Amino acid sequence: MFLGIDIGTSGVKAVLIGEDGGVAAQATAPLAVSRPHPLWSEQVPDDWCTATDAAVSTLPVALRHKVRGIGLAGQMHGATLLGMDDRPLRPAILWNDGRAFAECAEMETALPASRAISGNIAMPGFTAPKLAWVRRHEPALFEQIRTVLLPKDYVRLWLSGDKASDLSDSAGTLWLDVERRDWSDELLGNTGLTRDAMPRLFEGTEVTGQLRAEIAARWGMERVPVAAGGGDNAAGAAGVGVVRDGDALLSLGTSGVIFVAGDRFRPNPAGAVHAFCHCLPGLWHQMSVHLSAASCLDWAAQATGMDVPALLATAEAEGAASGPELFLPYLSGERTPHNDPHVRAALLGLSNETTPGRIAAAVLEGVAFAHADGLAALRAAGTEIEALSVIGGGSRSRHWGRIIASVLGVRLDYLDGGEVGPALGAARLAEVAVTGVDPAQVCIRPPVRESITSDPDLAARLAPGLEKFRAAYPALKNI
To answer: Which one, of 95, 126, 130, lies nearest residue 10 by Cα?
Structure first.
């Protein structure tokens, strides 16, 4: 057995896979997000460890005894700041936190080569601008910082005592020379840091340490190896076999991502496209990133007094393109293609005839329209996509899939186990790290359960909504 642990935003997921690669058991434990001020998004780092312990402890004891290795995946970009005692100095600043917008511009002005080195435009969600913000607004705390870790790597520290990270997650800090796959002294210096504050770097398939005896005893395991793992999207890609040049996936988690694997570094910072290392050696990837995807369903369900399954059923009963209502899904700002932390979501076109069903339908369509913007940015960078493997919790809705496929004009492939997400990839990376087997033999594509192709009639009915969606953003931004 191999254990994959994914430190998500809304919860921690633990997955056990057998020697045959199949999922033997899985469990989750919830997490809460704090938003004490506008644009802020924070979590208490120790909550990640508590939730990890809860999730793993829920897995069957008999299977836990058989675990041979552990892999980690997690939400990217989170700034976890540790002092001399390796304890957090403040709550972690998360990926969807937008407070460091001013620092982004200042960093790029101070180091004009930053985009060329990192391959990415400076965005408030990345880790480096968060440290620039802390340096300005919490200077006494900044002076106490001895180590900066990403969320999953704080859990690693708790698990094994090692300060280590993988290259795919570290590429999202804005401190990595992504093409060279190493920390950049220039980028670190731009935020007043050195390599001394950084964890050691590993490929995702390498072992970074061993499980601590105390935790091993509590979980009923040996002191098994802990693999470097990957950022959530890269690990999710490894889990469903998106590991060759041109392979692509659509992740419908809290955020939404179109991910394209590549055998070389292909940056396009002008289009707010992310260009990061993959979690496998010798590979990179591009991403269009939308800060709100399935989280829009959670919001809409709460706003209309339904749960998410009821919301989806209501939207399907209403039908696509059923009314003039339009939803812009910018609950936490947006990355691709706008790089705008200030813009917020909106429901437009409401009338006396608007029903909860129409609102539900508009929310599904609005997220699809945002992904159409992201796909356009990827295509502008010369990337061709004909099909997307679908992962994440949002992959459970086939009705939503028909809308997305028709808006994007691509085929969606739904895979067995695709809803498991990054935890599955983390487990596969652990298997490679422990056994030394070729990643191509482990990170394979699961069987396709169903494919959804673009419906020309539905695409034609949704096209006016997409046109209005794109016209609405600049108007919304101006107010």
So the answer is: 95
